[in-house]
Amino acid sequence: MSNTMTCCFTGHRTIAPASLPLLEEALERAVASLVLAGYSYFGSGGALGFDLLAARAVLKAKKAHPHLRLFMALPCRSQDKFWSPEQKRNYSEVLCASDEIIYTAEGYFRGCMQKRNRYLVNRASCLVAYLNRKTGGTKYTVDYAQKAGVPVLFLPEEPAFSLPRQQSFFEYLTNN
Asked: Model confidence over 135-146: pLDDT tens digits?
């Protein structure tokens, strides 16, 4: 898999219930726009929250565009060890519907989530991010992508805090 037309996702695990409908809609629009721009490979880290929402948005788009491919880059085989039965069921459904599952480590270790995030960014030509905090794994991944020169497209909008100037989502798609 080349990173030429590959989009990956990063975002927070916790999403406020009031933000969920807007974020789901923004994800569906983003995926549709990326497909129209020629993207066919999409990667998700499979974490609760934004990662699984993004994976479901790709799977929904895949119904109309069967050539799309979803790969799941997972930090370890036991990622869901402490999840509720409902969370595990949702996770299992997404994994079963994905085209490829990649484990960046067999077992959990300190730093395995960051290893998974770097794996995703290193295979991406763009990163779609849901970022509303100045710290944490999502911020780390956005910083890593920006340092690597991977365009970061923020959903549903730019974060309220200051980041280096990036193209807007639609500027990026128009110019590339």
From this structure: 899 999 999 999
3-state secondary structure of 127: strand
Tokens 């880290």 map to which residue?
45
Give the containing element (helix H, strand E) for 62: helix 50-64
If you count them, how many residues does the chain have? 176
Of the candidates 163, 133, 171, 158, the one whose C-alpha atom is nearest the C-alpha of residue 145 is: 163
The CA R_g of the chain, rounded to the nearest whole Å, is 15
Beta-sheet pairing, 126-130 with 69-74:
unpaired
3-state DSSP call for residue 9? strand
Q: Tens digits of per-residue pLDDT, 20-45?
A: 898 999 999 999 999 999 999 999 99
| C-alpha–C-alpha distance, residues 52 and 41, integer Å | 16
